[in-house]
Design goal:
Blueprint (H helix, E strand, L loop, with lengths): L11 E5 L4 E3 L7 E6 L6 H12 L1 H6 L2 E7 L3 H11 L5 E3 L4 H5 L3 E6 L2 E6 L2 E5 L5 E5 L9 H6 L4
Parallel strand pairs: 3-4, 4-5
Antiparallel strand pairs: 1-2, 1-5, 3-8, 6-7, 8-9
Length: about 150
Amino acid sequence: MSYTIGDIVPDLLGKDENGNEIKRSDYPGKTIALYFYPKDMTSGCTAQACNLRDNYHDLLNAGYQVIGASGDSAASHKKFIAKNELPFPLITDEDHHLMEDFGVWGEKSMYGRKYMGTFRTTFIIDQEGKIVRIIGPKQVKTSNHAAQILENSK
């Protein structure tokens, strides 16, 4: 399965670092910026998370709720949130079901080595649960991601 623009995503997205269910309906009137990233504590993922943190109030003021998701454990997410003072939840997707549903889990290659991993992708989901925009792996700029999200919201 792979969601695309125009698709309606399920209400239940997953569980956060504290085991709480994360639902679209938890954020009425908000557009959700659901961003998938490869791994906690890595340089690119930290740059992306910190850019979203540093611009979080601008995103909230523009009507967005940021939610991150990766295959890391709840314990890893808790450390990542604490170390970087992240103000938004991170979905734990250790079984990769959410990433598979969104089509962001697949074969990657680095230095000739093939492995399974997460394609850094952000889905913009409107108040009705419809995907209205996708910022794909080749488009995401980790150090300026908030501006990318805000780009079409004015």
